[in-house]
């Protein structure tokens, strides 16, 4: 911005310049107030001589602006935050700093405004002037009332404490980080006005955050229209104690499936039969869920004594649906992982040779280039890339074996261009690798479905059956290696998962209108042979018995009737009384009315029978079974309540990102050093905030 008179505004002072055309240095002339300048002397300065050292700019505005040259005779001041430019000097004319102060202090800067909304920074404010410096300047720039009305940015210490607690919870930072010297120095430089909290204070803030979020979760659970299912995930620790992570799954009134971590209970003897029962009882009491529990899924197979102990404990305060057949189940992801790990251990020598071969190729870029060149020469059609596996995640081992198996021809010829490559797998070993991959594939596909979606239990009946069917078929193979491995894997899958969960899976697929009992009949005929009819009858009888139990359960309260107009209230009461008298027809016919209703209900088909007799829906890829039941809940009011609870039964206890874990979870040493209540608050709040 140019100034009308040939004056240079320095800070709040305007210093006159006699000749605008003089070739003065375009640096700002920092002059003290009332300091007289001999302009004739300035005009005769030899610009080739070294300029005297200029004083450092004193105005605080230069903490927010940077001067840059845009041409030999023009310099502009750039805002360090929003990068907007302002006039600084043109030739001998030098602008002042008042317009720069307004940009920062009056809220014109867009970046500063965004920070203001977040309450994270303190705005620039001009320092207070002394009495001598408060005299009005000879010339001032106009300031609009709108700019002056913009409030200054403020610092909120309480919000900063709240955000530190959220940061620690969401990212698993140690509580003691607030006492680390490096973090203290960082916060002190970032915001000197913030008084850093202590370990005890931030621990209290984290617990307070947990309690606030817990109230919201409690409201959701109290308003559930159906029941809730629990998963128990037992974590080990280096201190011989265990931690039981209890997660609740339920479908809300809008038919949306929810998964929330409810409790983390420390157990001193996690292997005992009573440990899991104690943890579940504590969860039911903490969340006031007596009578709402539908099923429990555990991440490890239970002994018969432990399962019976858990059923007996839970039956005290919860109605036993189907005599507890749905109460305890095993984790599908954990079962698949254990089967793969034991199968790999049985063939450790072969897997190690393949892993060493992959490591050899991936150890240097030149070896990898030779491998790729040989692959092109041999015209191997595989598009898979070699990758070294991580034994902690069994999917990486499967993918390594699968890629190496498709590239076995390249490995077999690699010793020709690279004589250093030795100890390649033999053709017989490569054949066994192919068998391993073919047996692992259905397990991998099922685990991938668990990891990639929030599919309900009805989607996993066919997946589990497919695993059992393929392993049963391969058990009759003429190849001794394939037959022995298939029998081993089938026995483990049958013992660890299918025997205990096939009934629950079958019941879940029955409430899928695309399959109903038809898929159960077809699948059982393939794996049970002559015993298929008896197994189908078990499922059919079980689902009918379950439906009869839901018929006897109290229905949810109906919506309140519309309010009657006061003018018609008396007339409505009289009409209701007349209808009641006429319908009774006298007290002697009351028993007759009950008889008519009873015999009529016996003659009519139940909701379940009507549902099973209707034709199957077309099998579409993106079918949402919960949405279908939501749309048809008026046609099947009782059956839809039963379907809601069945579809909320979890098939695994671990979150999607831990489906392929080869080992169980272990609580780190720092968490073990904290109080059990603090550990529960941190873990649960992290799940809820996520």
Automatic annotation (TrEMBL):
GO terms classed as biological process: post-embryonic development
Localization: Nucleus
Single GO MF annotation: DNA binding
Source species, domain of life: Eukaryota
Protein's UniProt keywords contain Transcription regulation: yes
SUPFAM superfamilies associated with the record: beta-beta-alpha zinc fingers (SSF57667), Ribonuclease H-like (SSF53098)
Start and end residues of each BED-type domain: 56-109
Any Pfam family the entry gives: hAT-like_RNase-H
Principal location listed in the UniProt entry: nucleus
A GO CC annotation given for this chain: nucleus
Sorted UniProt keywords: DNA-binding, Metal-binding, Nucleus, Transcription, Transcription regulation, Zinc, Zinc-finger
Keyword Zinc-finger attributed: yes
InterPro entries listed in its UniProt record: hAT-like_transposase_RNase-H (IPR025525), HATC_C_dom (IPR008906), RNaseH-like_sf (IPR012337), Znf_BED (IPR003656), ZnF_BED_domain_contain (IPR052035), Znf_C2H2_sf (IPR036236)
Region listing for Disordered, in residue ranges: 557-589
Subunit architecture: Homodimer.
Protein known as: BED-type domain-containing protein
Organism name: Genlisea aurea
